[in-house]
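Field guide to reading this record: the first block holds the primary sequence, the second block holds the structure written as discrete tokens, and the final block holds curator observations. Each block starts with its own label. This record concerns DNA-directed DNA polymerase, catalogued under organism Mytilus edulis.

BLOCK 1 — SEQUENCE
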Amino acid sequence: MHVAAGLDLTFLDSLNFLQMKLSKIPACFDLTEMKKGYFPHLFNKKENKHYVGSYPSLEYYGVDYMSAKERTEFEKWHLSKNNEVFDFQRELREYCISDVDILRKGCMKFREIMMSVTSTTKKNDKGKTVKLPGLDPFNYVTIASACQAIYRELFLEEEYETYLTNRITRRPLKDQRNMRKVTLQTHSAKHPFVGWNGKWRSVDEKGAPLYIKHALNEGEHRLPGTRYRLDGYVEKTKTAYEFHGCVVHGCPQCYPQDRSSTKHPLTKHTMNELYYATKRKEMFLKRMGYKYVCIWEHEYHRKINLEEGMKEYVTSLDVVDRLNVRDSFLEDDLYPSVNKYAKYVCGHPDIITSNFKDLSLYFGFAKVRVLPPRNLFHPVLPYTTRDGKLKFPLCKKCADIEFQDKCVCLDKDRAIVGTWCTPELELAVSKGYQILKLYEVYHFNDTSEYDRKTGTGGLFAGYVNMFLKLKQEASGFPQECQTEEEKLDYIIKYAEKENIRLDYEQINKNPGLRTLAKICLNSFWGKFGQRLNMSQLTFLYNTEVDKFFQLLSDSTKKSLIFISSVMT
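BLOCK 2 — STRUCTURE
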């Protein structure tokens, strides 16, 4: 949080940058003149506030939570204090001062190193080379966001339009929109038009299969020269199918009262306006010669609950949501070696929803139904259970109910529907998985992969190489490299392996620099999969009343929490 108004203060959590014990900071950043002592935190009680006497016994220092090495060092220190006096007030003050001093100097050293390694040079208008300041990590909230900034500033060569949304991000099919959703107990009810339409209209009068164009295949049909789209459309019979959500279309049966004042929460249109727009579309379609078939949401619910066999039929439909790339992200990170050498997608995908080819011909993401093998010691594909746990199961049903004994489920219960990267699926197939059905594929024609021979390519190779070089140099020469010949041979072999040329003069043990490089290597990828619905704190002064009321009236803000009568 930044506080301006003459103060210019920024409040940051150092743990978001340096995830280590405070006692490790002096050694990490080579602060040789500093050392964190020990304090009996469990002794810090009201009755001991003014204690003066011998040093408290071992258990007050939390020895049970120390490592074996830490405990040995602590016991040696505690033994040396046998003949000394422990003044609680004095020790508390000195300990707090020492803690703050260590953290301050450690953070400043971290900032100094980060700005040094990210500084660049460029020529000014006079042709003179000048050094530009590096990136200040404390301009960001976490080390991950700082790493992303380094990548954008130093290594992202092309500019792309960036989408930050929890909705499905894709180049839409022609005349396609996201479908409205009705919540029932079955997954297929999320696309109620498909479920309703399938019961009576899956075949024509002669019994031949009837192809209906809708949002889950080619996209919703758009009437030429108009803005009207149809939930379903059969070109052969020129039939328009519409599913009317009661709120969206101003249903007169569900909203009979105050129709001129009751408004849709998003569009702000009244129920009368929505209903008239729906009827106007219906009359237009009929005038244009279309057969018009519709059903209201409340009618759909009634049919589901009352009509014999309807609920079973809808439940049996194999209908799933559209592919969401975020579903393929796991709750973990990637090794820097994967970031450097792996093949990544670029640009916009081709979206395939029918007429699928062999999976090996695609590169990108695929939403599929797979059947895992029954005997595989290390399952390949992850699955998020219905209670939100990430597992690698061989049976969906057993994973959901946490069944621990031998699986006896049928194949239809074992099959898993999910979104995975195509290389994952290819590996799974090689291990015995069967792909039962393809629902949707994002195929990327543009890709980027690091070339080991030329040292070019790769989306993240430049970033990884920068910090890998720093980490390797800060590690010093290996112990077996004693002679000049051995050291030079080490540099040559490392260049052959990683395509990174180490600087002989820079190869010196530097714990702080090595730690920084390691943090930046391991804190980069996870930011790409971060949730977007994180809470945000906004601090406003009494002179910023206009901003406060703008915030209150912002329809995109779902909730505001008033912390107290003077703070929101």
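BLOCK 3 — OBSERVATIONS
Residues 166-191, 197-205 have pLDDT under 50 and may be disordered.
DSSP finds 16 helices and 20 strands in the chain.
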